[in-house]
Amino acid sequence: MRYLYYPGCSLESSSIAYDESLRWVFKALGIDLIELEDWNCCGATVYMSVKEVVSVVISARNLALAEKMNGDIIAPCNACYTTLCKANRLLKSNKILKAKVDQALKIDNLQYNLGVNVRHPLDVFVNDIGLDVIASRQKRQLSGLKIAPYYGCQIVRPEPGFDDQENPTTMDSLFEKLGAESVYYPMKVRCCGGMLMTTYENAALKLNKEILECAVENNADCIVTTCPLCQINLEAYQNRINKKFETDIHIPVLFFTQLVGQALGGNLKELGLHRHIVPIGEKVAELMEI
Amino acid sequence: MVLNTHIEPGVLGKTESELRTTFLHQVLNIPGGEKIKRCIQCGTCSGSCPVSYSMDIQPREIVALFRAGDIESILKSRTIWICSSCYACTVRCPSGIKVTDLLYALKRMAIDSKKYSKKFPVYALSNSFASIVNRYGINHEPELILQYFLKTNPLKMLSMLPNAFKLWTKGRIKLLPRRIKERKNFSKIIAEAEIMEMIVPLE
To answer: First vs last Cα of chain B: how many Å apart?
Structure first.
């Protein structure tokens, strides 16, 4: 198995731990992860608000580069994942848009013939590699660990993909296979607000408070997420939320790859677990000592 | 009116009639865009929206106003900027209306019509983001936040410092931007795409 890795901008800075743990896990599983040559920004949700054609063109450049390298893309950031998927879908269904995009890409002798699939690593873990294979490489049991599986919004929406749109269970089954328990977590696909945290902080703080509180109320030891934006909103703003709503929330927020990495025997630094602002917590730290 | 041909992200000047033609084209271009006629005003979109409490016009009302032709009220609303693109409404709409994509089209129309001051939050963020991506090919988080707060509320930056410092000590802030190799060609692709953006096919 071989995949083209599209890190996206967050995984190079604020979510570097996601990058470190993802690369480590793929190596531990013996699967090739080759970085997409000269990739550019996906445009995220922001560019779509400014220009439609340009936003699709910049996504399409990445798809064209991947086609040149003859592989499918792995996009770990939910926003990159949904944006690249959306561009792919629009290009397949809208001939006028496709013609405009072709015209722009031609400037750099690029072309895209709709031959690339965009995948999320969670999908790849569960549906390509398989739970049994991952479990066969397991070095640590995650038993006793209670997780709140937080998928975020853009991994399952807007179009149906690899999991249910209202109640996804892929991550639940992955970690149950590895010995952890996933708690009742009805907030699993609720939106964290994304960039609203910058533009309308008050609206975003309320969203994040509800997502965090639900995990705490259901006795989760940590929240496990698949998206860099969700991770930073849920982790870095806990102090602000506590101040604003007079709460006392301190719950670790991990990337799902960090927890898979733990199960596969990775250490603290290899998995970027030393990069958290909210300490990873006793339960997670205990597991690391085994 | 004079057609402004100066190319800069998000600020292409267009005449009112051109804006409306482009907009209608954009809406019909959204796969299933014609379904907007089939709205039954059930309010599932408003009920599913996690941020509707913060909106001045509910998503259901946006669709009603849009069909009634009152685009002005929508463009002046806070609603289009509060939407965080979680697509909950789109997934649940029983008539298959792509509400999020409709709001994207409305955001673009609002930006194009220059209804907003440079300090307006989402406008400032979108323009900063687009200009950074156009320059480097990749977003650079610290620069985005810096540009954004300089444009909107420089004092607020002070309150961001404690968090920024914590992230910095954990190696989670990258001070220097990375640039893609084919920057020049990337800019050329974008310039061409900007021209394509202006073309509305006659149908």
So the answer is: 24
